[in-house]
Amino acid sequence: MTATDDLTATFAALADPTRRAILSRLADGEATVNQLAEPITLTQQAVSKHLRVLEQAGLVSRTRVGQSRPCRLERDRFDAAADWIDRHRRMWRDRYDRLDEHLAALRDDSQESDT
Predict the structure, then answer these.
(1) How confident is residue 1, by pLDDT bands cut at 50, 70 and 90?
(2) 30: exposed, middle or buried (C-beta count within 10 Å: 0-12, 13-18, 19+)?
């Protein structure tokens, strides 16, 4: 998967509120499907379906501890998404700053020509 495809999968996975709730729960620590299903009014099958999407996006991984398969958050993928957002936030902030400077210069020119 390319970096762009990774971002597409990440943002697509984050678009669903249930998946975001699962990720919020996993931010507190590893959890099994049963533990993830308890606070959410979904079946274990539905939670498993959401977990598959999160795993495919690289946001969650599962390990095996005895007969249990706890899920855990993969924080590196979030860093890549946050980096992308920060880079674009800076780009747009710079463009707005330049637009503000240009508009201020136009106002100054307009005021000078009126006097």
Answers:
(1) low
(2) middle
How far apart (Å, rounded) are the C-alpha atoms in residues 114 and 36?
Answer: 68
| Amino acid letter, residue 26 | L
Q: Which of the four pLDDT bands, split at 50, 70 and 90, describes residue 12?
A: very high
Phi, psi torsion values for 64, nearest 5 degrees: -120, 125
> Is the distance from CB of 38 to CB of 56 less than 8 angstroms?
no
Q: What is the mean pLDDT of residues 46-57?
A: 95
The Cα-based distances of 48 to 20, 53, 70 in angstroms read 14, 9, 12
What pLDDT sits at residue 3? 64
Following DSSP, what letter does each residue of 39-80 receive, concatenated?
Answer: TTTS-HHHHHHHHHHHHHTTSEEE--BTTB--EEE-HHHHHH
Output Rg (C-alpha) for the chain, integer angstroms: 22
Residue pair 31/70 in contact by the 8 Å Cβ criterion: yes
